[in-house]
Amino acid sequence: MEENIMKSMPMPRIGDKAPAFKAVTTQGEINFPQDYQGEWVILFSHPADFTPVCTSEFMTFATMEEQFAQANCKLVGLSVDGLYSHIAWLRTIKEKIEYKGMKNVEVKFPLIEDITMEVANKYGMIQPGEATTKAVRAVFFIDPKGIIRTIIYYPLSLGRNFDELYRVLIALQAADAFGVATPADWRPGDDVIVPPAGSCGTAKDRMEGKEDMKCYDWFFCTRPIAREKVLDAVLKK
């Protein structure tokens, strides 16, 4: 029966409204995504409390929380464990775990209790081929309007790359702020991609008066945006 429910529940997609839910967390009750209107949110799941890969990830997220906050982004975690397990695990992290120079790490962002797996199933975090009772390492980037903008899934055995998660956030915001796209491995200060022209003629027209633009062909044009300009647009003052 439970398997049939999971199969019948469509997974959210990029461009969809983030599925709404109310939940108990380590920071009190939340009404998601309504409580986060006007802010970016990274909603992410982990397989289980008191596991080593998850511990390394939570310590990294907690250490970077202020960096994400400066980019107007809140963090919200989830696993299918209960609230008391969450609290005990986070206390253990703060009091006992030292890893890669990180110690006395206090996790201040909310960690959702989801023992019924209701939220995990809404977001497709339970992947039966990987595990039927644990959430995979899913990451959802949700914009200030409550729209899902990026989805990344990792298997249970693979810890996430947090530099990449931050890069994705900044790239999404830069794309919105400047009406551009970002090429492979883009970071602030690199050239951005101008939306493709419809024909060679329109590409040539676009080039007029824009000496800073470089076109490799009609469909592939780039222009520079200074790193400082990008950061001014996306980071809180």
Please render the helix and strand layout as text.
Elements: H1 2-8, E1 21-25, E2 28-32, E3 40-45, H2 52-70, E4 73-79, H3 83-96, E5 111-113, H4 118-122, E6 137-142, E7 148-154, H5 162-178, E8 192-194, H6 200-207, E9 214-217, E10 220-223, H7 227-234
Parallel strand pairs: 3-4, 4-5
Antiparallel strand pairs: 1-2, 3-6, 6-7, 8-10, 9-10
Helix pairs in contact: 5-7
Description:
There is one protein chain. The chain has 237 residues and is α+β, with helices and mostly antiparallel strands. It has 2 domains: 2-171, Glutaredoxin, CATH 3.40.30; 179-234, Antioxidant, Horf6, Chain A, domain2 (Antioxidant, Horf6, Chain A, domain 2). The chain has 7 helices and 10 strands. The protein has helices at residues 2-8, 52-70, 83-96, 118-122, 162-178, 200-207, 227-234; strands spanning 21-25, 28-32, 40-45, 73-79, 111-113, 137-142, 148-154, 192-194, 214-217, 220-223. It has a 5-stranded mixed β-sheet with strand order 5-4-3-6-7, with helices on one face. Helix 5 crosses helix 7 (227-234). The longest helix has 19 residues, at 52-70. Mean pLDDT is 89; it is low at 1-8.
